[in-house]
Amino acid sequence: MSPITARDLDARLAPLRAIGFDARRGTNRLAWTPEDAAAGAWFEEQAAACGLEAWRDAAGNRWATPRGTDGPWWAVGSHTDSVRDGGAFDGALGVAAAFAIAAVAPDDRPLAVISFEDEEGARFNTPTFGSRALTGALADGVLDRADDDGTTLAEAMRAAGVDPAGLPRATDNLDKLRGFYELHIDQSTDLAERGAPYGVVSSLAARLRVRATLRGVADHAGTTPMEGRQDALLAAARLIVAANEQAAGEMRATVGRILVEPNALTAIAAGTTAWLDARSPDSAVLDAWLARVTAAAPGADLAIESRSPAVTFDDGLRALLRGAGAPEVVCWAGHDAGLLAPHVPAAMVLVRNATGISHSPVEHVELEDAAAGATAILEALSA
Length: 383
Ligand SMILES: [Zn+2]
What we know:
Helix 3 (92-104) links the parallel strand 5 (73-78) and strand 6 (111-115). The longest helix has 16 residues, at 34-49. Strands 3, 4, 5, 6, 7, 8, 13, 14 and 15 form a nine-stranded mixed beta sheet that branches. This protein has 383 residues and is an alpha/beta fold. 30% of the residues lie in helices and 24% in strands. It is globular and about 75 Å long. The protein folds into two domains: 6-204 and 311-382, Aminopeptidase (3-Layer(aba) Sandwich), CATH 3.40.630; 206-308, Alpha-Beta Plaits (2-Layer Sandwich). It has eleven helices and 15 strands. Helix 1 (6-17) packs across helix 11 (367-382), helix 7 runs antiparallel to helix 8 (283-296) and helix 9 (315-322) crosses helix 11 (367-382). Bound molecules: zinc ion. Zinc ion (ZN) is lined by residues 79, 90-91, 119, 184.
């Protein structure tokens, strides 16, 4: 059996990399856009070249499946959408690798390729949209979410040729999957530090997202004495410091988004909304952190917006992927494979990233490393 080569990956990836790419801003290939449609055309060309049949499910996920069969299939995949001003490898590498694997999969193990729609959720704050739809894990009211221009997700789907009314039927295809592998760029330096070209993900960290609302009283920045002010932005600053300082143990906490009212240079802030993102392999660590932050910021109204449990990937698949000694790592980001893992055997391979940077135009992997990781998946599928 011929192993996957860097050259093969490069040839598959090159046309996809060109879609939505700008030398200054990097990659902008958001879900439900013309760039997304162009990525879909690339997907169909890849499928045809592998002798697979391309189709789209009710959530817009793109499938390439063995002709004349109805599954269940083993599948390999990732996503082709990007964040705003993203890089060339996050997601795209995994779908290109999936086609490289499918092209040489043994005839008696026909393989499906999946590109999940809107993994990044960059436009509607709907991360892992497609894999959530497939597994019945979408939040209520998701179709009403609007992008920065006021377009709702339902409108964007319709414009992209996918009927939002069909969304509940996306789960119909879950039983067509026998299992799932995903190859993805490492978004840390874990593998680079270990000198490993690729690694096997043992688990995905649990994640907690909290919305903090802080109330103040708007008043004149010049005429209001310092004593007695009720400054919602100052309170938010204290909350942000608390969220950072209370992040003890094996966890990470970030406040990356904040809205201020009235957001005027000359007015004391009347209201602030901030979003806290915390992750840990152990969800108990997150609950303890939230209790400490709550105690440290008594004026803040903290509401849990979403939480995802930690996900442990399939023992048997991990053992196959480790093969002759690939290391195992914890992954701190969310991925489509994590949504599938509670339903079908699933596993992930991460590819070494020298700087650890992703979601940026400078994210980079060596395709030789990616080829080694893809070959590990091919061998696991063939075992
Ligand atoms: Zn990704």
